[in-house]
Amino acid sequence: MRSSAYKQIVVVACLALTALVSVRARARQSTASAAKPAAQASQAKTDAQPQGPPAGEPVANLNGPYTGMGTVPTAQDLGNLAFASGFKGKDLPEGSGTAKLGADIFAGRCSMCHGANAEGVHWAPMAFSPLHGPRLGGGNAVPSFNRKPGEVVTLAYSAPSPMVLFDTIAVEMPMFRAGTLKPDQIYSLTAFVLFKNGLVKEDDVMNRETLPQVKMPNADTFPKSDEVYMDMSKRGCYQTYGVCQGD
Fold it and tell me: What pTM was estimated for this model as a whole?
């Protein structure tokens, strides 16, 4: 009796499973049939759109038939990258600062890597802090192959323009929080570093007009204008097939 009932249950279960598989198969077939016309229409639409040049061929016009590909970044999009400027300082932001104001900012934002007096921090095994930063103050010599004893070369004595200091601080500092400084803070820190190298006075106000006027010790080693960097033929004694061109 039990055996007969068990067989009936097994048969019913098998029939139910077979019916379920059949229903699912028909559903897949129906979905595929419905999707085929849509896929064909989508392919036709794609084929009708203008295509780019074959691989390996240059694009004659980047605008070409394409539209809506990106937008011009705003100052908000760029963040502190918008503060970066060339050697002439034409893109410097509004704001101002002095070395006296920069001293407190340096102590709170920079001293852990560059030292309390801008003397630099050199990491050593088992040291309390693993942070490391170059010396920023006390420069007295430009880079040379035969540096004499006592000569100290800092970024301020290497850079061709004070905007190098400004751009570096604006875009790359402080460590782990790069790009968080405001223009007044950046001007103040730039003034502080210049002051620590004897290039400005403690109360000299640095802004978009006065900062480009600071004479850097190593400025004469570099070209005098931004345009020179974009044109190889203007880079001083530029060698072209053995003929020296330019100044």
Answer: 0.64
DSSP string, 193-245: HHHHTTSS-TTPPEETTTGGGPPPTTGGGS-SSHHHHH-GGGSSSEEETTEEE
Angle at the Cα of 58 from the Cα atoms of 57 and 63, rounded to 5 degrees: 130
Q: Would you list the DSSP string of 69-122?
A: ---PPPHHHHGGGGG---TT-TTPPS-EE-HHHHHHHHHHHTHHHH-TTS--B-
Cα angle for residues 82, 88, 93 (degrees, 5° grid): 35
Residue-wise pLDDT tens digits, 185-244: 999 999 999 999 999 999 999 999 999 999 999 988 877 666 666 666 665 555 544 444
The helix (run of H) or strand (run of E) holding residue 7 is: helix 2-48
Q: How far apart are CA 136 and CA 116, in angstroms?
A: 11
Of 184, 206, 185, which Cα lies nearest the Cα of 195? 206
Beta partners for residue 207, in sequence order: 96
For the chain, the straight-line distance linking the first and the last C-alpha, in angstroms and rounded, comes to: 113
Q: Could you tell me if 214 and 199 are in contact, meaning their C-beta atoms sit under 8 angstroms apart? A: yes
* Residue 185: CB atoms within 10 Å: 19
For CA atoms 214, 218, 223, 229, the dihedral sign is negative
Q: Provide the residue type at 90 as one letter.
A: K
